[in-house]
Design goal:
Elements lengths: L2 H16 L8 E14 L11 E13 L2 E10 L9 E10 L7 E11 L6 E10 L2 E2 L3 E14 L2 E2 L3 E2 L2 E17 L2 E13 L3 H7 L4 E13 L2 E13 L2 E15 L1
Length: 253
């Protein structure tokens, strides 16, 4: 992957963050979480046959009166030698250009590195909406243009880098109590469509699906235990539907 592309997009993220730091911006909430995760590609409805995955994940985000952002970094396959591991980082931001409006300008940067199916940086720019929420739940949809920086080179179509279609996505959660215990069900989901020919060849189709549904139990203040169903279709170097079960223990701060 071209390092200049990575650097320019990280700088773009920093510029976007400054939008949340104006004199009239009010910080409402900051949150973070460190998690240990175990997953098995061979357990689920589909055997993807990639074995076990041990991961460390760090999440960080903030909410402002004019917008919000969420980010994470994960180091995967810790049960493998260093050269067999891969790393993923993401930034998802919403900014309200009109004060008081729930319509947003959004951007998402998602970078996966040292994968067997190739490194890639996904850059999404579009519009979102933050008005679908109540005290116990929220749904935050967005639609975006998808640009890609990838080291995949198709013999037939050439480089996969460049315009890569569009993305329809959302992040959602529902908090509830059961037997006086606190629980949450959350979902993140993205549908990629109208991919370029080279990337469609690599991933198995012009349309792809990527997401996860997670049930979380807040069993001790600041501590959580979760079970997550990770699903994907024509994504992650897998040319059909696949899934994985993850078990996660996290500490919130």
């Amino acid at each position: 992957m071209n390092k200049n592309v990575v650097i320019s997009n990280l700088l773009g993220t920093c510029i976007a963050l400054t939008c949340f730091n104006g004199e009239t911006t009010e910080l409402k909430r900051v949150y973070g979480k460190i998690s240990a995760r175990y997953g098995d590609w061979n357990k689920g409805f589909v055997n993807v046959d990639r074995g076990e995955v041990w991961s460390i994940v760090g999440d960080f985000g903030a909410e402002f009166d004019r917008g919000e952002f969420a980010s994470f970094y994960e180091s995967n396959v810790l049960n493998h030698a260093v050269e067999g591991r891969n790393h993923v980082t993401q930034f998802l931001g919403h900014y309200r250009p009109i004060e008081g409006s729930d319509y947003t300008v959004m951007t998402k940067l998602y970078m996966s590195m040292e994968n067997k199916f190739g490194d890639e940086l996904n850059m999404m720019y579009g519009v979102g909406y933050l008005g679908l929420k109540e005290k116990s739940w929220f749904i935050k949809p967005y639609i975006a243009i998808h640009n890609l920086s990838s080291d995949y080179n198709s013999k037939k179509y050439g480089q996969a880098s460049g315009f890569n279609g569009y993305v329809l996505g959302w992040v959602a959660a529902y908090n509830f109590e059961l037997f006086k215990e606190k629980f949450a069900i959350s979902d993140w989901n993205e549908i990629e469509f109208d991919r370029n020919d080279a990337y469609a060849q690599q991933q198995g189709g012009k349309t792809g699906l990527n997401g996860a549904v997670t049930l979380t139990w807040k069993f001790i203040p600041r501590w959580t235990a979760s079970v997550s169903y990770r699903y994907f279709d024509n994504k992650l170097g897998w040319d059909r539907y696949g899934d994985r079960i993850n078990y996660i223990v996290g500490y919130e701060f």
